[in-house]
Every structure is written in C-alpha cells, then in structure tokens.
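---------- Forwarded message ----------

FYI, see the ABC transporter domain-containing protein record below. Original note from H. follows.
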Amino acid sequence: MFRAQLRRQAFGRLPNVYSPSRLSQYAGVTTSALIIRIKDATIYKDVLDQDKASPLFNNVNFTLSGKNEHWAIIARNSSLRTDFLQMLHGRYLCTPPDARTYPQFTARQIPLQQAIGYIGFDAERDGLGGTAVKGAYMSQRYEAHREVTDWSLLNYLEGNTDLNALEKPADSLDTQLLAKIVKSLDLEPLLQLPVSNLSNGQTRRARIAKALLAKPELLLLNAPFMGMDPVSQLKISSFLQEMANVSLPKIILAIRPEEDIPPWITHILHINPKTAEIIQGTTAHIYRSIPRLAYLSGPFVGVDLPTLMTMKCNLNSLLPRSLARRQHDTEVSRDYLPALHDPLPPGPPLVEMHGVKVSYNVTDNVDKKTVLGDWSESVEGTKREGLWWNVHRGERWGVFGPNGSGKTTLLSLITSDHPQTYGLPIKLFGRSRIPSPGELGISIFELQSRIGHSSPEVHTYFPKQLSIRRVLESAWADTPLSKPRLTHQNDVRIGAFLRWFAPELSPTKTSELQKIAETPLRGNWRRSGEMRRKLEHLNIVSNDIDWADSTTFRDLSFSSQRVLLFLRALVNSPDLVILDEAFSGMDKEVRDKCLLFLSQGEKMIFKPHGKTLNGNTRYSKSLQADNDMVNFGGLEDRQALLTISHDKEDIPGCIRQWICLPEPGEGKSARTGTLPGPLELHPESWRKIWKLPPRPEMPTIGRPGRGQYPRRKNYKQAGNE
Ligand SMILES: Nc1ncnc2c1ncn2[C@@H]1O[C@H](COP(=O)(O)OP(=O)(O)OP(=O)(O)O)[C@@H](O)[C@H]1O
C-alpha cells in the first residue's frame, strides 16, 4: 500500500512502457535521491515552436536515480539522440517548467552547467572545440613545424591554452585523476604532441579525457564509439564502466541502433525515429519489446541469421517475422550486390608505393617518430623496408587499422595533402610528384581532377558559404573557391545528382522526380513517351532544382553536408574515389541510400516498405532506368575506390581487397586480404580483418526458454558442479 502511494507520488502517470522490475527498482527511492526527474513533460526547441505546437518530445517521463543503473539512449536518427541528451542537459523549453527537475543538484546547490558534462561526436564537428587551435589549412596537420599556438595535448588537458598560460595558477587540476585518465585512455605517448596532429580517434579520446577532468556528476556522451577501432571501443567501454560503477561520474551514452550495446548497460531508452515515441526499461525488457534491437545491437550483433537459427534459443519469440524472413531470403547486400561477387580484373596501377615510410622529427634521435611503414616485408621474395602497396583501376579497397595507425596519413600521401609525398617513392597515375629525367611530375591540379575525396578533414576545411550547386561544380575546379570548368554534360550530371538527393538536400525535403513517379498516367506509364517527355522537360527547364542555388552548404544539417561531400567526390567520375569516414554522422537510411547510389547510381531504388517475401522485391528499377535516361550508373569498372571506416555498416558492398595497418610501434607489417562478397553478407570477414577472437557464447535473454540450458545429467557428466 505504502509502496503504491510512493510510486504514484514519484511518477504520477507510469512511463510509456513499464516493466515490473523497473517498478520495484524505484520503490523506496525518495525524490531527493533522484538525479533527473522528468514527469509528463513536453519539450520544445524554442519558444516559437511552442506557438506552432510542434514539440520535440511529447509526454516525456524519465528518471535517473543514484542507484547502480547505466542508461543507453538509442535512436536511429542522430538529431533525435542529440536532442534527447540536450534535453537531459537542461537545454530547450520544458512545459510545464517544473516537469523537469534535478533534485540532487538542487538540494546540494550545484549549478547544472557544472554538474552535467556533455560531449558529442556524432552530428557535431570533430576537433577540440574552442579550447584548442586546429590547423588553419589541411596539410598543416602533417607538418613537423610548430607554431606558438600549437598547444600540446598536455596543455589542452591541463587547460593551459591561453598565450599567457603560465600566469594562470594551476589550482583546480586533480593531477592524480589526470594521471589515471591519461593511462586508461592510452594518451601517455601523445601528451607532447600538438593537438592539431592528433588522429580522429586520438582526438575523441582526448575529448573524453578533458570532459572527465572537469569532474561532472553526470556525463552525457553522444556516440562515443563512433570512429573508434573495435579494440579501442572495448577498452574505452570498460574504462567508462569502471568510472560509471562508482558514479564518478554517472554516465549516459547515446548510441546508434546498429552499434554494440556495451554489456554493462542496464537500461535502455529507445526513441522511435518517426514518431519520437519513447520506450524505456531494463535491457532485457527492451530486447523483449523490440527484438529487432536485440538482433541489431544487443547480444546477437554480428551473428548471422543461419547461425542464430542453429543456436538453442527461442528465436521465434525474439525476431519479428518480417526481419527473419528478410534476412533469410535476401541474397543481395544493401547496395544490391550478390553475396558472392568476384572482384573486377585489375587494370593499370593508379597508386604505387615502393617502400613508403613516414617519419616526423627525423633529425632528432629522441623525438623521431615513424607513423607509417615502420616495418620490413617480403616483396617478391626479398625483404624490403616500408610499405609496398599498389592500387589498380577496378580495385575496391578497404583501408583498416587501429586509431593512429596511419590510415589518414596514407591517404594524404595519395591526395598530396601530405608534404612528404614529394620525397617518398610514390607514383600517382604512373608519375612521381617531382619531375625526373624525361618525365614530367604530376601537378596538384591534375591530381585534384583525378581524385574524388571526402573525409572529416575535407569537411572541416570546406568553404561553408558555397551554394549546394557550387559545391558540386567545384569538383571541376582547381580549388573549391576557384572558377569551375563546366560543360553542358557536367550540368546535366549535376542536375541528375541534385534530383536524386533532393529529399536529403532541398529545404522542402521533396523531389519533383518523386511527384512525377507518382503521377497516374495511362497504360504502361513508366515507359510511356509521355513519361520520357516529362523527364526530358525536367532536364531542360531545371527549375525543380533552383533550391540548390539559394541554399548554402552551411544551411544543411551535418548529415546532409556529409551527403553533399560524398556526391562531390563522385560527380566528375574521377579515376580514384577516396571515402575516408565519409558516411560517419549520416543517418542510417541516408547512408544506405548513398551506398546504393555508389553501386547502382540512378538505376535502382530501394523501397523500405516493399514486399519482403523475396528480398529482391525491395529493390526496383528507377524511372530513369525504365526510360533509358540513366546519367550516372554507379562506380565504373575503370575507377578505383579506397574506403576507410571503423564501422562495418559503413563499408560499401563492392569492397573486395583490404589492407590492415598494424598498431603503431608494433613492428609488424600491414596485412592484406580479399573478401568473397559484400562484407555485410560475410560478417566473419570483419573478425578476420581485425583479428578479433571468436564471439563468446551467446548470452541468454530474459527467462530461459526450453532447451537453453544443458540437461542436469549432461551438465554433471561434463564435470561441472
Ligand atoms: N606532425 C606530426 N608529428 C608527429 N606525429 C604526427 C603528426 N601528424 C600526425 N601524427 C601522428 O600520426 C599518427 C597517424 O595518424 P593518422 O591520422 O594517419 O591515423 P589514423 O589511422 O587515420 O587514425 P584514426 O583512425 O584515429 O583516424 C597518429 O599517431 C598521429 O598522432
């Protein structure tokens, strides 16, 4: 009776999904012991939205107690995850105002800004924020020369990033904590390095360290594992668990549904991407409510369906029928490639590296650091120093390796952003950078016209004031800001790209093409003369894509900016396409659309709600394909592709060759291999690339079903007690 009363007092109405375990969990917890208490709240982005009655979240109920509970916020859409964490952080308008309270912080009079820390890696920009200085131009990252404002990582962590830093007393720094964090996050060897030289993964670790050093009571981490190699992911996850276990600080993670949910997470809050409806409870409870989540990111992640089927587990109750059927029937990848798919025969070499070694501070024996090629390998039977690697036309490479192993450095040698490209034994498109007797060197302008490149670095330094159309046009220019050399064909190609991606790029999120596709015409309308005329008319008049002139790169969301840079890398059909973390930060559906476009161009469309009886019915020929008006048909055989990603979901299905760089300082050489088909349909290959141990036995979810435990007799026979 008393318990029921208390429950009513603390929560009012019950949360959207309520589990008995959750009920008992809060019985006995007084309101003042709660860290966050949100009850029947409606959240608006700003006051104006309130007038328009378009809330971000409706009827939010959420409680974070001081108990040993660890929450993960899961949503497919990056902006939903960010908005929810920001809402927990005290941002946005809450109605009624007292529906969102922070009882513990209020009782102890700790200001919210001090009590709650937030770091976002997802839709927010990389880099170390305003507290540190990133290079002013892309190649500055790879230079050995240091400016006075090139703060070291130690300066950054200690907060000494003012020019008169020495005049500031280093009072509040907890040196013990600093030492512990630096050790646990493997930052020790990087402490004296300028922050602008850190790799993406190293930068992320540095940001986590900085946030922990501020000693918040609660730390909100948005997509902390994005861009981290699988080994670092595990290390950081167990370090966060260690901190969270003692509530120093308490941690809430926001992750994507396809990411592994760390095993120490006890509670999940899932946000529906379409309706923003919230479902929450213990992990076991959520896996039972949303079996798809258990399959995608829970204990079954990475286990292919046939293996799952053979496991002693009541899968029927776990997997929704449609998913089971789809996984079973489909024999094509997301980008419409068959499960077994031979690589293309290699053409002439585009990139030749004959013993490449990248070192910094070579004149200083103490500070000398080799970041790539610090090994010897067997080349045609002879031991040779450095990296020996060729990329041929028709090849599709995945470039892998732990954070800091030199992947971006390797690609920067190819794009020539790295100053050492000139002195190293590298040939690009058959020529060296510097002229040799009887041979002209390849110019930077020729390189730029033959390489399409999208990466977090390109994103950071790209001029944001350009219109969407100008961004695509700049693929035919010497630099993003110089005048492009355009022909009528280029214009038609740009129009085709803009139309295909109008739902992602235009302010109205609609596409004229879609409207035409839905126009009812008589007879075999998709292939009628009338349809063709309509499509041709679009190309001539082009007023359906006027928005591309009036909308700038800056106006787009982070995910759409990434889409635009991906399209820029493809639009002029360069000989070599380099996609370095090009899909990170994109929403899942958008990323899959980009992958399909890379492989099939305008030929195929994906219908998320198509019939699932036969996997192929989800894909159908496009209007353009039906009317022989495909302008871009995906990556061509004469092109080569290089992709970098730590996320297996971001690897294009066409990748057949892979190279994995060793851990820096390991002395081992790079490993190479091939894939039998799309990585998505060969999940075991991912473990092979990363040399990961076999997956542990699948844990039991919820109450064990029949046959999940060995019979008592066999159990004893096996020598167990
Ligand atoms: N100017 C420099 N001086 C010394 N070391 C540098 C310099 N520039 C880069 N590095 C180091 O080179 C190494 C390789 O960096 P790179 O960005 O190529 O790694 P990566 O494999 O792409 O990592 P990530 O997966 O984290 O993006 C890193 O350890 C980085 O700190």
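H. also flagged this: The CA atoms of residues 284 and 703 lie 9 Å apart.
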